[in-house]
Amino acid sequence: MDKRKTTGILIFVSCIGGFFLYAYLLMLSEWSPIVLQLSVLMIAGGVLGVISWIGYTMATTKPSPSSIASDDD
What we know:
By secondary structure, this protein is mainly α. The chain has helices spanning 3-27, 32-60, 65-71.
């Protein structure tokens, strides 16, 4: 088996295991409130991080010559 296929199988199995660990922590452990809070925090941070990256990219990217010419119309 080549290295790429082995890495793919390892990622696949790790994700399945991570899901079951997350489900256990969320549903069956005494840590479920903090796991839920951290999950929501990570989702909100990810969404806001992507939006801020888009804003940063828009603010720091130089306009192309074609967009400058169309702004003069």
